[in-house]
Design a protein that fits this description.
- The chain is an alpha/beta fold and 245 residues long.
- It has a single domain, classed as TIM Barrel (Alpha-Beta Barrel), CATH 3.20.20.
- The chain is built from 10 helices and 8 strands.
- An 8-stranded parallel beta barrel has the order 1-2-3-4-5-6-7-8, surrounded by 4 helices.
- Helix 1 runs parallel beside helix 10 and helix 7 runs parallel beside helix 8.
- It is globular and about 45 Å long.
- The structure holds 1,3-dihydroxyacetonephosphate.
- 1,3-dihydroxyacetonephosphate binds next to strand 8.
């Protein structure tokens, strides 16, 4: 199971302290099979990277530019810069970035250059509430996957995070049967169209210590991408505990 903390635009140097609890917790459960990945804002990547050295926690960034290394792109960060600072993962295609203008084709370019830089990808997809109401969920998910992964090699470096836009930060989560159906649909595309033998699909959207157990009971779920609840160490640890212990 993957547990990925997406801190979004939250956190400062003081919040690094909260990692101590998580580091202690994870070292107690060495034998349990789970992965912990933190995606703090760019400003904290370096400090995180130093802090988690020799722990089982891994580092990810929340976005990147599609240019692989350098270029005249004010305010942007490239995949190779992320790799250089100790990041192993990068989130690409988050709906909050799609909302700010990331297109499927830019997302495809970002995935391509990130893989070439040696990063693993947390590739976010998900339908809006209107799309869901119009019964367009499958259509949207398959379009996002087909365009995002177009001509991508090394598909084993990709984790999919299914994040219905209507469940992000709202407290609403899909019903179990619905979530299972959508994850099955996503896995089917990855297997049939991309020949990925054992695709990994995570769920994200209002995951918290109260609903984690029920969500984790869905049999084809491979982990969680957690926003708000990941900012407090106790909540993050609780989610892991409820899922795997
Ligand atoms: P919340 O857990 O705050 O709903 O955010 C989910 C998310 O967007 C993770 O990427």
């Amino acid at each position: 199971m993957y547990f990925i903390a997406n801190w979004k635009m939250f956190g400062d140097l003081k919040s690094l302290k909260s990692l101590n609890k998580v580091i202690n917790f994870s070292s107690k459960y060495k034998r349990k099979k789970f992965k912990l990945i933190y995606c703090p804002p760019y400003t904290l990547l370096d400090s995180f990277s130093k802090k988690i050295r020799k722990t089982r926690i891994e580092l990810g960034a929340q976005n990147c530019h599609f240019e692989i290394s350098n270029g005249p792109f004010t305010g942007s960060i490239s995949p190779s810069m992320l790799k250089n600072i100790g990041s192993n993962y990068v989130i690409i295609g988050h709906s909050e970035n799609r909302n700010m203008g990331d297109t499927d084709s830019q997302i495809n370019k970002k995935i391509n250059s990130s893989i070439k830089s040696g990063l693993k990808i947390i590739f976010c997809i998900g339908e809006t509430l209107i799309q869901k109401k119009k019964k367009k969920t499958n259509q949207i998910l398959s379009k996002q996957i087909l365009k995002g992964l177009f001509k991508i090699n090394n598909l084993n470096k990709i984790l999919i995070a299914y994040e219905p836009v209507w469940s992000i930060g709202t407290g609403a989560v899909p019903r179990s049967f619905e979530l299972e159906k959508n994850i099955t649909f996503i896995k089917k595309i990855l297997k049939n169209k991309f020949r990925i033998k054992n695709p990994k699909v995570l769920y994200g959207g209002s995951v918290n210590p109260k609903n984690a157990k029920n969500l984790a009971a869905i049999n084809n779920i491979d982990g969680f991408l957690i926003g708000g609840a990941s900012q407090k160490a106790n909540n993050f640890i609780d989610i892991v505990k409820k899922t795997i212990i």
